[in-house]
Specification:
Shape: globular
Number of domains: 1
Number of helices: 6
Largest sheet: 5 strands, parallel
CATH topology: Rossmann fold
Strand order of the largest sheet: 2-1-3-4-5
Structural class: alpha/beta
Order of helices and strands: HEHEHEHEHEH
Radius of gyration: 14 Å
Distance between the termini: 27 Å
Length: 141
């Protein structure tokens, strides 16, 4: 829990240095902490949504609030498919990357059909996720 707390505190320091804002939609603490650690070396402000409903609410509040969304698919309340469709209705230009263990062939098709721009299977390779994110954001550490 101390690691988690220190990561949260680290993410809120010095927001002026963040060039990009990424919404990580992840209900699993370990999955979120891993993504946070990977991205924390870059000029990115990371915001977490614990479920699809929270993710949608973020876009209803400000449709241009995020430069990228990392979306888990199996989520409580509203799943990632539904959340992706609704976010894309609000802001069709925001890139959404599915990051999920739900990686069977129909699941991948469903991700793209719901509007995801990219798919990364868990467990993911750190270099692959950085490459995919780098396709949407110019990352320099």
């Amino acid at each position: 829990m101390d690691l988690y707390k220190s990561l949260i505190e680290k993410s809120t320091l010095n927001d002026a240095n963040h060039n990009f804002k990424v919404l990580v939609v992840e209900d699993d603490d370990i999955g979120y902490i891993l993504l946070h650690e990977i991205l924390s070396s870059y000029p990115i402000k990371i915001v977490r949504a614990f479920n699809g409903e929270e993710a949608i609410e973020n876009f209803q509040h400000d449709k241009s609030a995020f430069d990228l969304v990392l979306m888990d698919i199996r989520l409580p309340k509203v799943n990632g498919y539904v959340a992706t469709r609704q976010i894309k209705e609000i802001n069709p230009s925001v890139p959404i990357v599915a990051v999920t263990a739900y990686a069977h062939s129909q699941g991948v098709i469903d991700c793209f059909d719901s509007g995801c721009d990219e798919f990364i299977a868990k467990p993911f390779d750190i270099n692959k996720i950085l490459k995919v994110i780098g396709n949407y954001l110019v990352l320099r550490n």
